Amino acid sequence: MFQLLLSAYSTISIHDTALFLGMNEDDATNYVLQQGWTVDHASKMLTVKKQPIVTEQKLDPSKLQRLTEYVFHLEH
């Protein structure tokens, strides 16, 4: 559920966060603060800290070979 909150919200109320995570408001606030989120106590809103997207590039040697042959063919 925490991952869904990360992807769906940029800000969310403490109350809603607690409901989604199945915790009381204090526990939910402490949990998300440990994850790097920030809290505005005046408005009782949390600002979500987006995690960087890590993409893995998989290199298939046969595709690289075909691309090389294609480029070589175009150049000659």
UniProtKB/TrEMBL annotation:
A single Gene Ontology CC term:
cytoplasm
Which UniProt key words apply to this protein?
Cytoplasm, Nucleus, Signalosome
Where in or outside the cell?
Cytoplasm; Nucleus
| Isomerase in keyword set | no
Residue ranges annotated for the CSN8/PSMD8/EIF3K domain, each copy included: 1-55
Question: Which InterPro entries is this protein grouped with?
Answer: COP9_CSN8, CSN8_PSD8_EIF3K
**BP term (GO), one:** protein deneddylation
Where mainly located?
cytoplasm
List the protein's name.
CSN8/PSMD8/EIF3K domain-containing protein
